[in-house]
Structure formats: C-alpha cells, structure tokens
Design goal:
The chain is an alpha/beta fold and about 425 residues long. The protein folds into 2 domains: about 150 residues, Alpha-Beta Complex (Aspartate Aminotransferase, domain 1); about 250 residues, Type I PLP-dependent aspartate aminotransferase-like (Major domain) (Aspartate Aminotransferase, domain 2), CATH 3.40.640.10. It is about 40% helix and about 15% strand. It has 14 helices and 17 strands. The chain has a 7-stranded mixed β-sheet, with helices on both faces. Helix 7 links the parallel strand 7 and strand 8. Helix 11 runs parallel beside helix 14. The radius of gyration is 22 Å and the shape is globular. The two termini are about 40 Å apart. The chain binds ligand C6P. The site of ligand C6P has 17 residues, from helix 4.
C-alpha cells in the first residue's frame, strides 16, 4: 500500500458514501455516532441490507437440494456469490472458493485438513510476531496433535516484519508459513508476495490471513502466489457469519474433508462414503445462504466506489490522523510501519485505554480498546492494551476531528 495514488480529495465524496450507511445516522449517548471501529466489524450499506432482505423475502430455500423453483433461485444466488468472490480476489476458479464462517474457521480448516495429516514431530510452522490469535491458536492446536513446533519471525519496533527475517526462520523442517496480510493491531502491511517466494523456495506453503486486507486494497491471490487466503465478510461491509477460504485447487483436492454431513458427499452407505467435488467437499451442512448473498452485494458496493479510490481516501485519512494524533501530548503511536493500512493504535500517558474508550464512547466516538486478540503484540510493546481507531470507506475527515476533540476531553478529565 505504499503507492500513493494521484487523486484530488474531491474525487472521493466521503459524505455521499457515509450517507449510504443508515446506521451511521444514529446517535449514541445523545451525540452523533462517530464509528471508528471498522477493523473489528465494518457497517453495512443500504444496498447490502436490501440484498439480504430481498433474498429472505422472495428467494429463500435450501441450496443444492431441491428441484423446486425457490431452491433453484437460492442455489443460483449462492453460486453467483461464489463467482463474485472468485472475481474479487482473482482465484483460479470457483472450485478454489470455499465458504466458511469467517477467517477463523478458514484457518482452522487448513490447520486440520492440510496440516494435521502432513505434519511430523519436529516439523515447523512459521508465524510472525504480529499475528491475530486466529492465526496462532489453530497452529498451536495442530502442533499439539502432531508434535510439530510453532515459531514466529520477529518484528522491529515499528511493527515491520521483513522478508529477510522470515527467510532466516525458514529451514528444511518448515512446512507451513502463516502470516497476516495486514496487522489488525498495528496496521502493518506485510510483503506477502515476497514471503510466498521465500516459503516456496524452501518447499513450504503459505497461508495468508487477509481479514484486514480485503476491504482496503486490491487482493489478487494469483499475483500474490499464496497457497491459502482467508478472510471474513463482516470486515468488508458484508454480513457476519460468512467468510472465505481460497485455496490452490491441487492442495484442496489432496486434503480430506474436515467436517462431515450433508452436501459434502456424493454417496453414503454404512460401509463407505464418497465425497463431493470442490468446493462442496468442505461445505458440510446448510450454508449461510443469505450471508453469501450479502457478501456478493458488499463486493458490488466496494467495486461501485472503486477499491483504489477507497484505498487512496483511507491513506489520506491515515496520514491526517497520524499527524494530528502525534501532536497530542503524552500520546504514543503503537505501530509506525512505513506501509500501513487504515488502523491507528495508541496509548496516552496516565490514561488506561479502557478508560479512554469509555470517555470517547460518552462523546459518541466508537473506538476499540484492549489487546485486539493480539496479545503477543501487546507483550512486545510492553503495554496491556491499546486504543485503536480504524477507518473505512465511509470515514470522514470530520470523524478524525471528533476523535481528536474527544481525546482532548479525555486529557482534561484525567488532567
Ligand atoms: N479482528 C479486530 O477487532 P473473524 O472473527 O474470524 O471474522 O476474524 C478473525 C481475525 C483474523 N485475523 C485478523 C487479522 C483479524 O483482524 C481478525 C478479527 C477483529 O481486530 C476482532 S478481534
């Protein structure tokens, strides 16, 4: 996300985008809502809400099961959503697009279905120091099951993970490298294309946790050359409860199903079951059909704005917010990588992040405070928690002003 796109501020009308999100018009504690917690879960535009509503009102039935009209309509919408996702991340085919409950489930699927049958005692799984718990714990579980070892490539004091450090931690025992595309706690963008190369050079596969990347930048899984890419719909203006695992077809073919049930089979007898083709082999049971419809509508929405324009807008906000926050007395920015996405983590001397969050909430400003499910990151920076403001396509410069104003209030309170 280094490339600063040439665009005048007027080309992106954040006020108009803001108006597409009905929830942003509400008040909290008698103040206009200023929503700066999009990295936790973004809000949904009216078009996504309407698409889900239309599906529920007119088309709902179970998929892949009925010859009746509604089942065919639901199946058609569900499979069209898969095709929409395929195009969004440039997966090789829809066989490579598995619907899951979210990033967490996608990573667990790979840990249990790809890694568990392959790992031998002493094999290594390489993570990085800035991972979300969703990209740590599934690997610890499979390590305990197989005798493999989990390692982590370090980051520097800015929160940068270098390819050199990743490469230095890969050896002939490394079977899997798993890293975030964008850190949720620091905003750091990782050089995943280069990491894929060093992993592949040593015969390891790469899983990328793309939860914080897909809403903010063009992700092309073919160009990144990663083996698995995981993300969640609810961070990209879609519904909760649905996400995606994109996997290389060759690897997915070799992997056993990880859950059994309806839809993932071709034939079942008490003696033997044969499994369905990709991607259905990994989709046991009735899927989240309305979620898929909403996700497709969210992709339509993102593409109607233009991902590059969203990115440029968020980068302008990030620059402006970083400049203004750096000027707040006693404020420490946590995560100062040169290549960052729309996340700012910080602490303020003498104010616990949770107190800060509460004071800001009273002002209508929603930020996230805590360890952000990245406890190793907190430990590295020697803080129990941080305050985190995160931006999205609908964030306006006036929202940053409201944040700065509320921070000044908090400093007065804690005088
Ligand atoms: N981060 C945050 O506030 P799920 O819950 O499966 O949709 O996503 C998990 C996840 C995995 N990886 C990264 C990098 C993430 O940021 C998240 C979710 C939220 O930062 C909630 S902890």
């Amino acid at each position: 996300m280094n490339a600063k796109l040439e665009m005048t501020p007027n080309e992106y009308d954040a006020e108009r985008v803001w108006r597409d999100f009905p929830i942003l018009r509400r008040e909290v504690h008698g103040r206009p809502l200023v929503y700066l917690d999009s990295a936790a879960s973004s809000q949904r535009p009216a078009s996504v809400i309407a698409a889900v509503d239309r599906y529920e009102t007119f088309h709902h039935a179970n998929v892949h099961r009925g010859v009746h009209q509604l089942s065919q309509e639901a199946t058609d919408l569900f499979e069209r959503a898969r095709a929409r996702v395929r195009g969004y991340v440039n997966a090789g085919s829809t066989r490579e697009v598995v619907f899951t409950r979210g990033t967490t489930e996608s990573i667990n699927l790979v840990a249990q279905s790809y890694a568990r049958p392959r790992l031998q005692p002493g094999d290594e799984i390489l993570l990085t120091a800035l991972e979300h718990h969703a990209n740590i714990v599934p690997w610890q579980l499979v390590a305990a099951q197989t005798g493999a070892v989990v390692k982590a490539a370090p980051m520097d004091r800015r929160g940068v993970v270098s390819v050199t450090d990743v490469a230095a931690h890969i050896n002939e025992r490394t079977k899997i490298v798993a890293c975030a595309h964008v850190s949720n706690a620091l905003g750091t963008v990782l050089p995943v294309r280069e990491i894929a190369q060093v992993a592949h050079d040593r015969g390891a596969v790469l899983l990328v946790d793309g939860a914080q990347a897909v809403p903010h930048q063009r992700v092309d899984v073919a160009a990144l050359d990663c083996d698995f890419y995981a993300f969640s719909s609810h961070k990209m203006y879609g519904p909760t409860g649905i996400g995606v695992l994109v996997g290389r077809e060759r690897l997915l073919e070799e992997m056993p199903p990880w859950q059994g049930g309806g839809d993932m089979i071709l034939t079942v007898s008490f003696e033997k079951t044969t499994f369905n083709t990709l991607p259905y082999k990994f989709e046991a049971g009735t899927p989240n059909i309305s979620g898929a419809v909403g996700l497709a509508a969210a992709i339509d929405y993102i593409e109607s704005l233009g991902l590059q324009k969203i990115h440029a807008h968020e980068q302008r906000l990030l620059e402006s917010a970083t400049r203004q926050l750096a000027a707040v007395p006693g404020l420490d920015l946590i995560g100062t990588a040169p290549d960052k996405a729309a996340v700012i983590s910080f602490t303020i001397d003498g104010i616990h992040p949770h107190d800060l969050g509460t004071i800001l909430d009273a002002e209508g400003v929603a930020i996230r405070t805590g360890h952000h499910c990245a406890m190793p990151v907190m430990e590295f920076f020697g803080v129990p928690a941080t305050a985190r403001a995160s931006f999205a396509c609908y964030t306006r410069e006036s929202d940053i002003d409201a944040l700065v104003h509320a921070l000044a209030k908090a400093r007065e309170v804690f005088g």
